[in-house]
Amino acid sequence: MKPKTALAIAALDSLSIDQLILKYEEVFGDECRSRHRKYLTRRIAWRMQVNDEGGLSFTARRRAKELAASSDVRVTPPNERNLKKYRRVPPCEDGYVDWDPRLPPPGNYVERVYRGRTIRVLVLTDGFEFEGKRYRTLTAIAREVTGGSYNGFTFFRLGRKPE
């Protein structure tokens, strides 16, 4: 990179947001839709370097377009927290279902004593069974039992640290 370009990039840090927007529109020749300082600074610096050094060759750009058109790549990487949140449990032969780690495996029961009555729910691979009826969520069962609005995991005291 030429020293003149390096000085111009270093000077971007002292510009206001409005000045960065004007610089963006000057360098790109397009309307700026962002007011994010770091984003604008990086994009302007990148374009200034491209203009200074010539950017990618025509062949490289064509090959990049070919690769992008034929790829099945995710645009954003998966969130690691969400990947660790669920474990995989096989419900049947043809596939897997995401399973909430707060629940016991299918075939087990979740119990809670509510106003002297024992509420016993069978955990199924595709929902829950309570008093011979099937429910999609624990919340629906909690609503049926209490008549009010409760979170199913909270009502059955699942997912809490042992006291």
Can you walk through the features of this model?
- The protein contains 7 helices and 6 strands.
- The strands form 2 sheets. Strands 3-4-5-6 form a 4-stranded antiparallel sheet, with helices on one face. The chain has a two-stranded antiparallel sheet with strand order 1-2.
- The protein folds into 2 domains: 3-70; 109-155, no CATH class.
- It is elongated and about 80 Å long.
- The protein is of the alpha+beta class and 163 residues long.
Walk me through the topology.
Elements lengths: L2 H9 L5 H12 L8 H17 L4 H13 L9 H6 L1 E6 L2 E5 L9 E6 L2 E8 L2 E4 L2 E3 L2 H9 L5 H4 L8
Antiparallel strand pairs: 1-2, 3-4, 4-5, 5-6
Helix pairs in contact: 2-3
Keywords:
about 45% helix, four-stranded antiparallel sheet, alpha+beta, about 160 residues, elongated, 6 strands, two-stranded antiparallel sheet
Quick structural summary:
The protein has 163 residues and is α+β, with helices and mostly antiparallel strands. Helices cover 43% and strands 20% of the residues.
- Count of individual beta strands: 6
Distance between the ends: 62 Å
Q: How would you write the strand order of the largest sheet?
A: 3-4-5-6
Structural class category: alpha+beta
**Could you tell me the radius of gyration in angstroms?**
29 Å
Order of helices and strands: HHHHHEEEEEEHH
Unreliable spans: none
Q: Strand content of the residues, in percent? A: 15-25%
Number of domains: 2
